[in-house]
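Here is a complete protein record:
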Amino acid sequence: MATTSRAFERKRTPRFANSAEAEFARILDFYGVRWEYEPRSFVLRWDRDGRPRERFTPDFYLPDFDLYIELTTLKQALVTRKNRKVRRLRQLYPDVRIQLFYGRDVRRLLAKYGLRAPTPAT
């Protein structure tokens, strides 16, 4: 279920996967940018019977920009997998706009706004 950004619209606070997502949501709230947390999953692979075998759920959706945001603060060795998923999503759903923010991008953004940077995953 999608959760919107503004306190008066939010039915419940989302359970973020990591501190970077929580801090990113705070930045969006501060600037009044509407957002939804993990509102949709996209099927990336199906089995022979047409059943979904792999899905991708971007972290945020910004409805006013029709843009999905995926944050990755994972160690570099695991980023390859997320890059593959984003490429596959773009192939299968060319009209879906998505932006991937890498760990360094997230750290710079948080530093710019004086928020604490997430600790890298080990």
Q: What stands out?
A: Strands lie at 36-37, 42-46, 52-56, 60-62, 67-71, 98-101. The longest helix spans residues 76-92.
